[in-house]
Design brief:
The protein has 202 residues and is mainly beta. It has a 5-stranded antiparallel beta sheet with strand order 7-8-13-12-11. A 3-stranded antiparallel beta sheet has the order 3-4-5, with no helix packed on it. Strands 1-2 form a two-stranded antiparallel ribbon.
């Protein structure tokens, strides 16, 4: 097993897990006591492909909604990370930590999680049966198992906490930021569809 030492944290990029439901094998990475998938979930009994085209599922994995998370879309012994678990991982990857639009964000030059720009499926008019797709090859959006209640215009609604991954295009426009990647904790509709990474129970 290849072990890399980074910022006093041991990462292994050669771990793997097999989903016993379909036999698919995924690479994993270790963050202290946490082991998390380094590839997007592709379990086919739930979720949708970006733009409902199989080629996107093959490249980026499937997009799942909050109901899938509540029903634990992960295989036995694994779960979707909580908001707190995502924050812990972001702390461990180091970089510059700051508030971006009043949201928690970290920027650095390493994509240790191997996150991908798989886009998002947004429920049109909050109707989960009508989905608009956007941001493929631009951003990745990743599920947590956490929600938050937000009030807008006197109306309170439940929002889904997600992790957004941005490739800042440093090679093409280095004047915009000194960091290549940004990882941001934010929220979206609980009817949307996003990528999933499973974390091993501990």
């Amino acid at each position: 097993m290849t072990i890399l030492l980074f910022a006093n944290i041991v990462f292994s990029q050669t771990g793997q897990m097999t989903d016993n439901r379909d036999g698919r094998t995924y690479k994993t990475i270790f963050f202290d006591k946490f082991e998390i998938m380094a590839e997007n979930l592709k379990f086919g009994k739930a979720g949708i492909c970006y733009s409902k085209e199989n080629i996107f599922c093959s490249q980026f994995g499937r997009l799942y909604d909050y109901k899938d998370v509540v029903n634990n879309i992960c295989p036995d012994g694994w779960h979707i990370p909580t908001e707190g678990e995502w924050r812990y991982i972001l702390l461990k990857i180091k970089g510059e930590i700051y508030s971006r639009n009043n949201l928690y964000a970290v920027s650095n030059n390493e994509n240790l999680l191997k996150l991908s720009k798989g886009g998002i499926g947004s429920a049109k008019y909050n109707d989960a049966t009508k989905v608009q797709f956007s941001n493929v090859n631009l951003n990745g959006f990743y599920a947590s198992s956490s929600t938050v209640f937000e009030e807008v215009g006197g109306i309170e609604s439940e929002k889904w906490i997600i992790l957004t991954f941005e490739d800042n295009g440093l090679a093409n426009n280095p004047s915009t930021t000194k960091y290549k990647y940004t990882f941001q904790i934010g929220s979206t509709s609980i009817n949307d569809n996003v990528s999933c990474r499973c974390m091993k129970d501990y």
